[in-house]
Each structure stands twice: as structure tokens, then as C-alpha cells.
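Z., the sequence and structure:
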Amino acid sequence: MNNNYRLPKNKSLILLIVILSITLYFPINYLMKVVLDIYLNKGSLNISGLNNIKFLSSNFLYFYITFVFLLLLILTIKVKIIRILSKLFSINLIIVLFLAFLVRILWMILFPTGPVGDYIEYNNIALTFAETNSFPYPNIPYLPVGSIFIFGLIYKLFGSYLIIIKIFHIVISFFTIILFYKITFRLFGEKIASIFVVIYSFYPSHISMINITSPEVTMTFLFALFIYIFIASKNVWNKYIILGIIGGLLLYIKPVFIFALIVPFVYNISIKKYRNIVKSISIPVIALLIILPFSLSYGHLFIVNTSGGINLLIGNNDNSIGTYFTPSKIKELKNVNIENMSTFEQNKQYSKLAMDFIIKNPTKFILLIPKKLFHLLFKDTSMLTLSFEGLKIDNTVKWILYIFNSIYYYLIMLIAILSFSRKYIQKNLSSYLILTSFILSILLMFIIFFGMDRYKYPFMPLIIIFASQFIKQLLDKNNVSHNQIMPKVK
């Protein structure tokens, strides 16, 4: 670690920054207007993207003054931000984190995606919330409420601009990288943690996520926070209460984390820490108590949303293909009259049909598992596809990004698989057990339901940690070989 970094104290440097800031404002502002004109003439922006560019342009002076002020603040007052960072990270790592932040800003500007797919409804409800004094969640709780509430609160506080959500995503994705760095550092050491930061910071799918009004960015951050508190804090009651609260928030955002909440319980049993078993049971209990008022407000018991039944049936019926398809094609539904049922009754009926299929056809259910995992893990294109939707982008640019992202993803997966050799696992058994348990807890959900490639993003950082472990071993071997070959200097 480089802890000898010194903040500039030269007053002439501060004066130079002020002069340059004033001088550069006008050409940079002019460049912003030129970029806006280019977008307008090309017609390559949807309405949302156009509003984002206009927002940046009209508020450019505000952002510019804020940036210069913060820069001067760092140089003049004794907050010592850079010194604090240099104690936490090496200077090289700070540069990587800065570049990761910059790349996400550039992606947001170059690909001004609007709300797309299922996330249009997320955004519309959030906007309605921002414009009224009550949370306008529909009478039918079909979508998870967590991220909708967060987006609505952000719109209410900062204005109904989609770019605010994207900036929020950039900020929490930055802290997600730091949290996973700290997790990796604690489990495997600084070198593997540094390798992780480099790989994860420039993972195209993670970069493109910031552009979408989806829950993936927020829930990945909370998932990282959950794991970090679990491995870094002492086994006191406060720790498990906090984990229960975070677990409740995760369930509000997406119920797929229900099994992840019992990982601490399973881990404590596996390492025979029986004193912590009761504490770890409190995590899912607290989480369920947090979401209980929401479900009871509808007069029914359910976990956050009522799409669980139909999703379970889509993944488990005679026509299942392992991923999402139109429910109208489900053979089991043709003999059931659901038109006069309430949403809650439909949810129960869908769940019953799915469970009947699983019980009566256990072999078919088992044979569907490879298909579900195939659709979950085989490709990695959905975030890029969503990021490009509604934009007129040259096909060559699209294919370059698709190919680069696919190569990046397949290399990560291949290297991660190689890390699961006996010698690596024996050296870090406890660490492997923790991370693998969290991965399997989420995989189990999609084995039961169905797979789509964007569903894997919350646990992809854990896969990258394993890949980083193997890369570190390769680098160590190369260093040893190089030192053996080099002649000794007398």
C-alpha cells in the first residue's frame, strides 16, 4: 500500500485550476451543444435519451461548478480524501476504480437508453409516486415493490429525470465493486482482491446494467453488503439483526434471495458453530417479518409479489423449455377457467398446477434442470440488448460489443471452473464454502423456476472472485518460473 501520498499544497496550482476551469468552460459547453445537435440530426435518440442529453446540457454549468468546487475542496481543506483512500487501496487500484467510474459515465452518455421491456412499468409507477403524495402501487401486486419505491423516492427528491436513476446506479455500482473487493480481500487476500477489481470493473454486462431501470444494480449492491457483513462482523446479535433487515430489503426487491438468507444458518452448522445457529435462524425470520405487513395489507400471505405462481408454472409444465415463454402455450391452463379468479386465486392455481406437475413427473422435472441452467449460464447478452433497445446504433458497433462481452464472459466462466481444483479448495476451504453456498442458493431458485441470462448478474461477482483466485495462482507460477530462469547477479 502506498501511504505516503501527499496532497498538493502549492497555491499556484489552485490558481491554475481556477483559471483553466474558467477558460475551459466555454469550449466544453460548446462541445456539449455540438453533441446534442449531432444526436438531433441523426435521430438516433429516443425521447428519454434526448431528455437525458438536454438535462446534461441545460444543467452543465451546475455540474461544472460542482466538479471544480469539489476538486478545489480536495486540494485545499484538510479532509484528506486521497490520503484516506490511499490507506484503503493502493494508488494503482484507485486509478482502476476511477477508470471504472469514468467508463460508466461514458456508457451512460454514449448509450442514452430509455425504460425498456418489463422495466417500463417499473419506471411508470415510480414516476407516478414522485408526482403524488402516496405510493401508487397497483391493486394487483404483480411486480416486486422494492426497486419501484427506491426509484420513486429518487425521482421525488431530485426530479423526474431518468438520468438521475442512472447516476444513482453508477454510484452504487461503484460501491458494489468496493464491497466485493473487501469481501475478496478478507477471504483470499489483497492480490486476488485487486485482480477481482480489474476484471469486474470492466465487465461489459455490469457496465451496461447502469443504463436500465431494473432492480439488478440495487439488489447486487445489497447482496454484496449482506455477504460483507456476514463475513466481516463478529457473531453478535446486532450483526444478525442487520442481516435480517438487509434480507427483508432484498426480498422486497426480488424474492429470489429467499434461500440466500439461510446460508449463514447452513454455514454455522457445517463448521459446527452451534452457538450461532439460533442467531442465524433470526435472519430469515426478521426478513419475513419485514415483508409481512405489505402482504397482510392485501389480506393474503405472499412474498412481495404474485408472479411467483405463473413463473413456477412456466418453468414446470409439459411445454416447458427451461426459460420464459408465453403462458398461453401452457397445456395445463387450457382445462382451467381462471378468468373469474382474483389475482391471488390465480397465483394459487398456477402454483398448484406446477406442484402437481413436479410431483407426478419427477423425471421430467429433473430433465428440465439442464435446460434451465443452460438458459441461465450459456450466454450473456441480455443487458447489452436492453441497453441498445430504442437506439439507432451501427450494427458493427453492436457486434463488436457483443463479441467482446461474450469472450469476456466465457473466459471468466472457464477460469472460474478451473479454480475448483482440489488444491485450491483445500487451501481456502472455508472461503470456497461461503461463496459456493451463496451461488447455489440463487441457482436453486432458477432450478425450481426457470432460467434467463440476466438472472445470474447478482452472483457473477462471486464467479469472478473464483476466476481471480486461479489467475493469481497462474501469475505466481510465472513469477517463480521467471525467477528460476533469470541468472543470479553477484
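Residues 1-88 form one domain. The chain has a mean pLDDT of 80.

Let me know what you think.
H.
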